[in-house]
Design brief:
The protein has 2 domains: 1-151; 158-357, no CATH class. 70% of the residues lie in helices and 0% in strands. The protein has helices at residues 2-10, 16-39, 42-53, 57-88, 94-114, 117-120, 128-151, 181-189, 195-218, 220-232, 236-268, 273-295, 307-328. Helix 2 (16-39) runs parallel beside helix 5. Residues 153-176 and 331-357 have low confidence and may be disordered.
Amino acid sequence: MESDLKLIQECGFNSFEDVVKRINELVNIMRIGRAKAEKNLQRFSNQAKEFLKLGQKDKAKKELTKKKKREEKIKSFDTQFNIILEKIKEVKNSTQMVQVLNATKYCNNLLLAELSEKETGEPTEGMKEYQDLLENDKEITKYLETIVKSKRPEKVKPSIPQPNQFNNNNININQNINISDNDLALIQKCGFNSFGDVITKINGLLNSMTIGRNLAEKDIENNVNQAKNLLREGKKDEAKNELRKKKVKEERIKSIDTMFISINEKMSQLKSSKQIIEILNDVKNCNNLVIEGLSQNEGDGEIGNIKEYQILVENNNEISKYLDIINSSGNNSQQQGINNNNNVNPYNDITFPSDSY
């Protein structure tokens, strides 16, 4: 379409072949970051060995538990990465481009979190892999903002999204839209009687995510205040670190907002169970991003006691339930196992650098 061509030209591309080529280049940078993240896992094994030598079995076990959690995060990355590799082949219009860019940004953010100073203890300024991933994020964000602004300028506002932004009245969908018998049977297994019911449920999930998103954004002010206090004490490096934290949080909020708009657009075009799978995966990714934002809030004590956090965890469980039902029904074989890392080989069709092992 001419409008799509004009849109990608605003992003600096002359064809969708150029788009695919550039996304593949971004993906290759992520491969290197992923290898670095896995290599860093060795530190937990080394620390566990040291504790065992000292007879401190509980501490050794704790280190191995940390390693296991990090391994699960890498598995999650690999599964999402697999999806990106498949979707890249299908990028022939701006809608598909947005979907792949959102998935790529999410995976890129997973790696940034794993390679952050908080996780590795290594300053990110001197870590090439981290800096490259940071540049990835900036570039992907630039493309997404360009596309969203061009396609839906009325939706792009600097203000905080309000919970009622995703009210069902905003979704132009016919509750009685023609639905195949297979699709109807499938969503009924999930507890829905129409695509309208599905939209209503997803809207509810988005509303709770918006509340969590706003809480995460509110916390950014803590970093600003902390930086000011540190500057008064003459601690410039520590103040700079607080401002870096602030920047990371702001970028995460931007990612969430972009994903909100993309999900909202997909829901307005919902016509099949295959699209439900795509939307649910996007909602789950966005929900995890909000959880990540809340988990890094300053001064909240035990994050697990925060009501908004618990609601988001329940969101995740509910979305996983729907995806498990759909996947187990075999409605779309290409999507089976997306959210079941234990039954999927996340390395299928992926050749990571050999030095990562």
